[in-house]
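Q: Sequence in, structure out?
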Amino acid sequence: MGWLTDEVDRINRKRMRRGWIKYFFLGGITALFLAAIVIAALWAVSEEFSVSVIRVEGTIVSGGNVNGNGFAGSEYIGRELRTAADDPLVEALFSG
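A: Exactly. Output:
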């Protein structure tokens, strides 16, 4: 009977190994699926960011809220820059 018991134990160990392999691959597929979901979510969020364009034309003068007639007041430019910088969806500023 010792030989039969040994053979049954060997078969059971082989089954257990196959079970672990199955769970290992199932876990890997699940991890890949979750990673794809996270990447898709991050991709969707990243598209909400934008570039803010602050248009300044003319000579920059100190003070004043002037923007036009060939002059741009430094207070106006500073306020526009601060507003854009405080906006959490603005990823970059461009002055042109």
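The first strand starts at residue 50 and ends at 54.
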